Amino acid sequence: MDGSRRAFLSTVGSVSAGSTVLLAGCTGSGSDAAANAETTGESGGKAPETTSTDGVETTTSNGKGGISTTTIRDGTEQETTIYEIRSGKPGPTAFVEGGMHGNEESGYWAADAIRKWDIDAGTLVVLPEANSQGVEHQRRKWPPGMDLNRQFPIGEPPKNALATAIWNAIGEYDPDVFIDLHSSKGILRREGDEGVGQNVFRSKHDEIVRTVETAVERLNDGYVTGYDPIYDFVHTPVSETKYAAEPMLVNKMRVDRDVPSCLFEVTQDDVKPEKRAQWTRVFVDSMLDSWNIRSSRLDG
């Protein structure tokens, strides 16, 4: 991590809950059958240059700012694209991932919108469809029986080629914050409900606690309106849940790389996909604002 990124992170660490610094310029539970069910519901400058090594193709723009794309698992059915948006100004790097589970459309819809955002400082990296085949088939597990978010054991190498490619790619970007976008059939706080929606599983890093809390407050105060109070978002240290040792990417990021990390879960219960995607975008917008990467642009 270079000195400029450390300086920005020091600023983030001093931000109190509910405030931001202005800039100048899935977990989830249930049977395999239920998990695999389909979702029913609803810069100017010179021309980019393209290089390809070891199945990874990268398009880069000349200059400090710009947009780059990297293809992982190139030439296979699992190939998928990572987008890197560079501001050209000092600041942290955020990595946003969606599409880990193909039946959780709000996450990859939101991530696809987010990868088109402009930023004010630092770098934004977005992987909209981590499991592109799962997205294509609208399945949580794809290939059948393979849950991509259970292929990242703590302290060990990822379990398969796709997970390895994702893990290695994240390492290349060396993010300062990691955000994983999911949805759940139920609600975490509802009695007798095995779902985990309306919750943000997070690490205990001070920066992530403060910034997630700010994002949750913004969602509850301005967007989760007209719903029963049980729909209000909460945030939970993942290390204090039954998922603490699960081989999920958020766990591997917070433990093996010691990166401030969170997994956003919005409920599918009586919330239309478009609304879920909106709440997801608002969450990420608030996070990027608090991390001084992008001053908030969203009103809805």
How would you characterize this protein structure?
47% of the residues are buried. The protein has helices at 3-13, 32-35, 105-114, 132-137, 161-173, 206-222, 249-256, 273-290; strands at residues 49-53, 56-60, 66-72, 80-86, 93-97, 123-127, 177-184, 199-202, 234-237, 261-267. A hairpin with a 2-residue loop joins strand 1 and strand 2. It has a 10-stranded mixed β-sheet, with helices on both faces. It is an alpha/beta fold and 300 residues long.
Principal-axes shape call? globular
- What is the radius of gyration computed over CA atoms, rounded to a whole number of angstroms? 18 Å
Strand count = 10
Percentage of residues assigned to helices: 25-40%
Mean pLDDT over the full residue set: 84
Strand content: 15-25%
Low-confidence stretches: 13-25, 29-63
Task: Give the oligomeric state.
Answer: single chain
Number of helices: 8
Structural class: alpha/beta
Neighbour order of strands in the largest sheet: 1-2-3-4-6-5-7-10-8-9
Termini Cα gap: 34 Å
N-to-C SSE series?
HHEEEEEHEHHEEHEHEH
User: What summary fits the major beta sheet?
Assistant: 10 strands, mixed
